[in-house]
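Here comes my example:
=====
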Amino acid sequence: MAYRTSSIRLARALTKQSQPTAHRSISAASALQPQNYSINNILCASRSSSLISNYNNNNIYCHSFSTKPEEEQPSDEAAAAQSPSEGEDTEETTNNNDAPSEEDKITKLETQIKDLKDQVLRSLAEQENVRSIAKRDVQNAKTFAITSFAKSLLDTSDNLSRALDAVPEELRHDHENQPVLANLYEGITMTETGLNKAFNKNGLKKFGEKGEKFDPNIHEALFEYPDPEGEVGNIGQVMKVGFMLNERVVRPAEVGVVKAP
């Protein structure tokens, strides 16, 4: 840039110096030789044109060495990006035509409301089911918490029953001849009665007696035998009584079933 400026200044100085010289030569020539005015005028004009051409050449030469960046012309792509095309106008018009109407919006909102209502109802139903299951589990845990403890006492009840059955019937109340055995029998009877009361108080009950109808859900048939006095399908013998805790079978009754002869 500095080189270009200095070149321009040099060319202007040369032009200014050449122009007065030409005028002076013309005036002097005209004063001395009036008849050669036209020839001198032509020479001065030629010199001026040569100086001007030299100035233009210097200017072009300096411009070739200039470091100033040329102004970039906008490309076709930028012009296309700046100016909206007909396709975009058509697309915008199509989008405006495809815009949903008020009825479509209302229908869409009603569908969303219906879906949300259904989701809320399902969520409430699921919460109610979870609450019911949790309540039932708590109740079952409270009701059958003594299941393992009750099972551990069933053998004790069986042993007391066996002890009572081992005493002959004629000696169970003979306080004169067998007072010790009679008193022992009474003590065992009282112990069994107290244990059964404790069982009943906590929901543990005995079942399985002779003459009951056989039920595979609560009875366990060990054998079958013919009995003309018993009814077919009923319990004829009880090997081990069963126990039920709050309507749930803790131990099935082991029985013998009467069959047809």
Observations:
- Residues 20-46, 48-53, 55-74, 76-87 have pLDDT under 50 and may be disordered.
- Helices lie at 2-32, 37-64, 76-82, 86-98, 102-143, 147-166, 179-201.
- The radius of gyration is 64 Å.
- The beta strands are 204-207, 219-226, 235-240, 242-245, 248-251, 253-259.
